[in-house]
Design brief:
- Helix content is about 30%, strand content about 25%.
- By secondary structure, the protein is of the alpha/beta class.
- α3 (about 60-70) links the parallel β5 and β6 (about 75).
- α5 (about 105-115) packs across α6 (about 125-135) and α8 (about 205-220) packs parallel to α9 (about 245-260).
- The radius of gyration is 23 Å and the shape is elongated.
């Protein structure tokens, strides 16, 4: 994304033309940015040669997943619905990992019958349920056991997943217990040791602590795991000049870990692959001026992009058409939803804006559209994929069509 003659361009398409042709609000995805992100991720871990399973929870658009599959990736899913869309996107079953703490019997059976690569289990009860399914279908099921390493990812507290206060994974002593109990099972093949400590992680230090916890399990249990699933969580720059993860340092630590334990690595990245490839295009409905604040009221709200309301996540907002006028007054970009939390960004100053202007909310490719709703009975934003100078409509029909 860049400016040409003060007009915003995504790949080769002027953004103001998108607004005119498709209307607003609308999610816009850059294929070239997605491709660059995937190739860069692969380059960072070339020596490890991991199985990369895209976290479908980050973006479950069928067309996006199809492109990701064509670029050689698998999928990490957390529900039957995500598994179905991954399979329909032509992602091979042997590249699909099923994660999540609350898989039902029916979901487990569905996954097993589809012969997916791995089911990552997170409790004694879940493992027993998988065993029951295996007995029913009369064949062994490959599973991973997810460790909760009690490692603070130093990220937003609502998206940390690797501490004892979080619902995810099993504590060390329970992992040892389950390995001992099921290592000779006729119906379960403990193939993987799994972990995921959180999202939007920007330091390699928590990951190194995580690797130490995994090493302790492997060394003490003396069990031969074929795979170690390191999850994902790699952070991106949301426009605040965030210090980003040092991939070289992380990769070197993993290389040593792999050499010592003779294991294959699985990654489950989502945000780091699709986050900065997505943009939410919106229009200014009204500008409400008060003594201290200019409220910039947009035609998109927290029903379209939940992250700022959910955990005060930062998303940069840029104009579709630049000008040289600057107003030194607080600008608050807000939506039309009847909630005080329906706001996106507050800035001390901004360029001169007018009602009817278009703006873009940046870095919304991950956990944007997937978290949207019809709250206030509002229509969902549509979605388009941009490939060079071509634009493809990739959104699904809006839920409101089924209400009235």
């Amino acid at each position: 994304m860049f400016y040409r003659k003060k007009k915003l361009i995504i790949e080769k398409v002027p953004v103001h033309k998108i607004a005119r042709q498709f209307g607003t609000p609308i999610y816009c995805y850059s294929f070239n940015q997605l491709k660059r992100n995937i190739l860069n991720f692969k380059r960072n871990f070339t020596k490890i040669r991991p199985l990369i399973c895209f976290a479908v929870k980050a973006n479950n658009n069928y067309r996006i997943l199809s492109e990701i599959g064509r670029l050689g990736l698998g999928a990490d899913v957390v529900s039957r619905g995500e598994l179905i869309v991954a399979l329909k996107s032509k992602i091979h079953p042997k590249k699909i990992v099923f994660s999540g703490v609350g898989k039902t019997y029916d979901e487990i059976e569905f996954a097993a019958r589809k012969k997916i690569f791995l089911i990552n289990a997170e409790s004694q009860s879940e493992i027993e349920t998988i065993s029951k399914v295996a007995k029913k279908i009369k064949r062994s099921i490959d599973i991973g056991i997810r460790l909760n390493p009690n490692v603070d990812a130093k990220t937003i507290k609502e998206i940390t997943t690797g501490k004892y206060s979080n619902k995810f994974g099993l504590i060390e002593k329970d992992v040892f217990k389950l390995i001992k109990q099921f290592k000779n099972s006729k119906y379960l093949n403990i193939k993987c040791l799994s972990v995921h400590i959180g999202s939007q992680i920007t330091s390699h230090i928590p990951y190194i602590k995580m690797l130490r916890s995994l090493q302790k399990i492997i060394s003490k249990s003396k069990y031969r795991f074929e795979y170690v699933d390191l999850g994902g969580g790699m952070g991106i720059n949301y426009g605040k000049n965030t210090k980003l993860l040092d991939y070289k340092k992380y990769s070197k630590e993993i290389e040593k870990f792999v050499k010592k334990n003779n294991v294959k690595i699985i990654f489950e990245p989502g945000r780091s692959l699709i986050g900065n490839a997505g943009y939410l295009l919106s229009k200014i409905i009204y500008i409400k001026k008060t003594n201290k604040i200019n409220f910039i009221i947009l035609d998109t709200g927290m029903n379209d992009l939940m992250r700022p309301a959910l955990y005060k996540a930062y998303h940069n907002i840029i104009p579709v058409k630049k000008n040289s006028s600057k107003i030194s007054k607080r600008h608050e970009f807000v939506g039309p939803i009847c909630e005080s939390t329906d706001k996106f960004l507050s800035l001390k100053s901004y360029q001169k804006l007018s009602e009817g202007d278009n703006i873009v909310i940046c870095d919304v490719g991950a956990y944007g559209k997937v978290l949207s709703s019809n709250y206030n009975l509002r229509k969902n934003a549509n979605e388009i994929l941009i490939k060079s100078s071509k634009v493809f409509k990739i959104g699904r029909k809006d839920h409101l069509q089924n209400i009235f």
